[in-house]
């Protein structure tokens, strides 16, 4: 409850008084979530994640007055981050993404191996299925919020999520 009140206070300071320090606090609050989401989308490319994260917060700052509060602020940020990622994909459509999401080799630990296998399987999913799976399972976002972030119908999100689950299950049942 306190965080929600703090968030509303910071948002109003940004929108009404153009308070950059208040926006800096919002960046501190939401940067880890946005970076984690983008890091998953970019298949572990930290440099690209930093660039897209920075662009996300720049666009958020410029557009802060257009935030109407009809969704959570985090949903609005995720939507901006996803749009930035998709714009980057369109710009780079002629070049494939770096296939290099390689989990660090930490030895024979089965949990690390399974995690790397799962991330590899998720990375192999096509868009928007991959983004939906990441938002649902990695970011713990509800289906309604995922639909808002990606600009899709709720039933469409459910279908893509089921397809993603089925493809992952097929991969691991072999």
Short descriptors:
single chain, mainly alpha
Quick overview of this protein structure:
By secondary structure, the chain is mainly alpha-helical. The protein is built from eight helices and no strands. Helix 1 packs across helix 2, helix 2 packs across helix 4 and helix 3 crosses helix 4 (73-91).
Write up what this structure looks like.
- This protein is an all-alpha fold and 174 residues long.
- Helix content is 72%, strand content 0%.
- The chain contains 8 helices and no strands.
- The chain has helices at residues 2-17, 20-41, 46-62, 73-91, 110-123, 129-138, 143-150, 154-173.
- Helix 6 crosses helix 8 (154-173).
- Mean pLDDT is 86; it is low at 96-108.
How is the topology of this model organized?
Elements: H1 2-17, H2 20-41, H3 46-62, H4 73-91, H5 110-123, H6 129-138, H7 143-150, H8 154-173
Helix pairs in contact: 1-2, 2-3, 2-4, 3-4, 4-7, 6-8, 7-8
The amount of helix comes to over 70%
Our measurement of the CA-to-CA distance between the termini, rounded to an integer number of angstroms, reads: 46 Å
Main sheet overview: none
Element-level helix/strand string: HHHHHHHH
| Proportion of residues in β-strands | under 5%
Radius of gyration: 17 Å
What is the helix tally?
8
Structural class label: mainly alpha
Any idea what the shape is? elongated
Number of DSSP strand runs: 0
**Average pLDDT taken over every residue:** 86
Stretches with pLDDT under 50, minimum 5 residues: 96-108
